[in-house]
Write a structure and sequence with these properties.
Layout lengths: L4 E7 L3 H14 L4 E3 L8 E6 L4 H13 L10 E6 H6 L1 H6 L5 E3 L7 H9 L5 E3 L4 H7 L9 E5 L1 E2 L10 H4 L4 E2 L2 H13 L4 E5 L8 E2 L5 E2 L1 H8 L7 E5 L9 H9 L6 E3 L7 H6 L6 H14 L4 E8 L6 H14 L3 E6 L17 H24 L5 E9 L5 E5 L5 E5 L8 E9 L3 E6 L4
Parallel strand pairs: 1-2, 1-3, 3-4, 4-5, 5-6, 7-10, 10-13, 14-15, 15-16, 19-21
Antiparallel strand pairs: 8-9, 11-12, 17-18, 17-20, 18-19, 20-21
Helix pairs in contact: 9-10, 13-14
Length: 443
Amino acid sequence: MQSKKNLYIKIYGCQMNVYDSLKMENLLKPHGFSLIQDEKNADLIILNTCHIREKASEKVYSELGKIKKNNLGVKPTVVVAGCTAQAEGEQIFKRAKNVDIVVGPQSYHNLPKLLEKVKRQEKWVMDLDFDEESKFDEINLPENPRHSSFLTIQEGCDKFCHFCCVPYTRGKEYSRKIPDIYREAIGLISKGVKEITLLGQNVSAFHGIDQDDTIRSLGWFIKKICEIDGLKRVRYTTSHPKDMINDELFIAHAEEEKLMPFLHLPVQSGSDKILKSMNRDHTRDFYFEIIDKFRKHRPDIAFSSDFIVGYPGESDKDFEDTLDLVKQVGYAQCYSFKYSPRPGTPTSMVEDQVPEEVKSTRLAILQDLLRSQQLEFNKQFIGKDMDVMFDKAGKYSRQIIGKSPYLQSVIVESDDNIIGEIKKVHITEAGLNSLIGEITNCN
């Protein structure tokens, strides 16, 4: 009988890392590992890392510096996984001597074998292969998934935006086969999952092969899984505007009630000059056309986006173009960051960098505008009823938190166990980051 070993996983970055971390947990359970929430008692520590910004990577090294022996005085096995692992490889061993394993995002299914090598006192064990199919062959369904679950259908990216490291850390675009992901969706729903978010670095480029060798689009697959009894909600993220040209996706938004009316569609900049410099391969007018087409098919749809401020060569006029785009679209929520050069990307070697103080000033202006839009969006629901899927308890007694169709956090008070259920909620208050309401009796 295997002795029980404690596993601690710290997740950085995107939803894909959340999905991958759950798969690593499930992969290691048969080998005697149980997940804990405190690294002090861990036998195995996995840092599942992000490399999209410099700050994210430096946080990992800071965390590695803090990892000490556990409470029994034993050094835990330390694994650096994810995109920083893929990008920096052996450099991690040089900067952090307490790291035992470096494993890329396409190779974590080999963790049991890598741990055996460490057990045999082999040092600096590394696996950075890009073998997408075998990874998905090895992963298992979680034993007790949450009522809302991620499902990866696509990985990698072929766009090569000049600021982005994803093509180098996640590899080329790869879409899983339709029967495999459909089977995984069925399995999740059979275990009580009611909401599925389809994941991909560029999920809108999904081109999965069906059992009859037909290539299917994202819109087609959404309509397919919406037919599954027990599934209540479907979402997908993250998309690239260039791939939003397939009418099946617009039709899915128009016809499928289970598909939530909320879309994360990164634009990064509102300046055509900067978009070209970024190698985004679309213009601001094309972005507006996509937004308008979605609104035509689904009038109540809302959008979020990503913005990079202070990209090399960004002028005052370019920044004003970004502000203008934000005002024209009107976002429900957004993510915005100062440009951070990533080693190996084309713009990391450009000399025309924007001064740090200019970046900070522009970011503050943009975020003020985005926050005002987000608050205005939230306030429009005061006095209205909305369907909320409840997924966790709040900080206080009787408090339960759920998600609206637009991914807003909705807080109610209830004595009933409603986690996992969808309830009609009358919204009474709205803040920047959440809504407050009361459960109605009209369910």
